[in-house]
Amino acid sequence: MARVFSGMAPSGDATLGSLLGALRHWVTAQNADAYYCVVDLHALTVPQDPVELRSRTLELATVFLAVGLDPEVCTLFVQSHVHEHTELAWLMECTAAYGELSRMTQFKDKSTQREFVSAALFTYPALMAADILLYDTEEVPVGDDQRQHVELARDVAERFNSRYGVTFTLPKAVIAAVGARVMDLQDPARKMSKSEDAAGGTILLLEDLGSVSKKIKRAVTGTEYDPALPGAMNLLSILGAATGESVESLAARYSQYGPLKSDATDAVVALLEPIQRRYRELSADPATVAKILQHGAEKAQSVAAVTLARARTNIGLLPL
Ligand code: AQP
Fold first, then answer.
1. Residue nearest to atom 23 of ligand 1 (CA)
2. Ligand 1 within 6 A of CB of 194
3. What stretches of the chain show up as alpha helix (H) in DSSP?
4. 3-state DSSP call for residue 140?
5. In contact, 109 and 145? CB cutoff 8 Å
6. Using CA atoms, how far apart are residues 95 and 311, in angstroms rounded to an integer?
7. Beta carbons within 10 angstroms of residue 131's beta carbon
8. Spatial CA neighbour of 78 closest among 37, 135, 50, 33
9. Is ligand 1 within 6 A of the CB of residue 207?
10. 11 lines ligand 1 (CB under 6 A)
């Protein structure tokens, strides 16, 4: 199986988008060479409350386990526990071009309407490149919004290899056909996002199921059924991603929003219910989760250290 890496930031509570766009594909792709990471350093690109950040980091690691990632099969860890990530990130910043980083659409989206824009919000794709390249990653399962960042990681790796000799494996993004961009239920022009203040349009993974059902019933669609409208397309994609049916055949089945919303609700509840049950069991024992993360960090570091040493040598840093 392929060498796999992917990460998720503890910048808010994981959403249905996090599950359909990323987490469930991580579960399918897990193997002995798969590395999944709570990227806490990425969350720091915007100011965080320290107490909340710590607890959300542990919660997100517990979500990883609750969705079915198995620490006996793959490696689960926290980014800041493996210092090689920040060290390689500097070499990546020195290899990435200013113009390349300026073209990242996520920076443009996230830097507007923000009072304080950190330098890290601009350079964070270089850290993400380091995250990926440290594990000789071949495949990066991500949602559609991260495609551009994975392509940047590949471009930077290619440049480094051609300047300093072959050092990194070239990664590629693996993006699901359905569910790769779950949209906000109240504003279907916008991605469902965990750090946005969009309570009515975002379904959280650990949200009360009654509230999930209300949100789907209130999702913005239109009056006449039209599967091409963004709100309808979003519900059809969610239902398709949750049930495995194609969006085209689902689109032809309905003529009104009522039955579509009702079936989407049932499918989402069926998906979330076992995850929430498992989460409740796991969160009763945070010491076990912490132990899994410690073991994961040791395993990840043993691989990351080798790649970093190769990069240091090839770029010309003097050994100690
Ligand atoms: N709405 C979504 N649809 C499909 N995939 C999604 N992902 C996130 N939202 C959706 C995928 O989840 C993975 C983890 O993403 P992240 O937490 O590192 O950051 P993000 O992509 O920026 O996600 P958010 O929720 O929008 O977080 P904030 O608000 O902090 O930026 C990625 O693979 C992502 O594609």
1. 193
2. yes
3. 16-18, 24-29, 40-43, 50-66, 84-93, 98-102, 105-111, 119-133, 147-164, 209-217, 230-243, 247-253, 257-283, 286-315
4. strand
5. no
6. 12
7. 29
8. 37
9. no
10. yes
Query: Are 56 and 275 contacting, i.e. CB atoms less than 8 angstroms apart?
Result: no
Which residue bears the tokens 């969006």?
A: 247
- Nearest Cα neighbor of 28 from 66, 79, 70 is 70
Pocket test for ligand 1, best of 146, 148, 203 (most atoms within 8 A of CB): 146
SS3 237: helix
Indicate the SS3 state at residue 75: strand
Cα 244 to ligand 1 centroid, rounded to whole Å: 21
Residue 160 CA, ligand 1 centroid: distance in Å:
28
Q: Is 191 a catalytic residue?
A: yes
Q: Which of 11, 16, 18 to mutate to test the pocket of ligand 1 (most atoms within 8 A of CB)?
A: 18
Answer whether 23 contacts ligand 1 (Cβ < 6 A): no
Q: What is the number of the ligand 1 atom nearest to the C-alpha of 39? A: 18
Residue 144 CB burial class (10 angstroms; 0-12, 13-18, ≥19):
middle
Closest approach atom of ligand 1 to CA 144 = 35
**pLDDT digit string (tens) for the chain, length 320 residues:** 899 999 999 999 999 999 999 999 999 999 999 999 999 999 999 999 999 999 999 999 999 999 999 999 999 999 999 999 999 999 999 999 999 999 999 898 888 878 899 999 999 999 999 999 999 999 999 999 999 999 999 999 999 999 999 999 999 999 988 888 999 999 999 999 887 666 789 999 999 999 999 999 999 998 899 999 999 999 999 999 999 999 999 999 999 999 999 999 999 999 999 999 999 999 999 999 999 999 999 999 999 999 999 999 999 999 98
* Binding site membership of 191 for ligand 1 (Cβ less than 6 Å): yes
What pTM did the predictor assign? Answer: 0.96
- 3-class SS at 309? helix
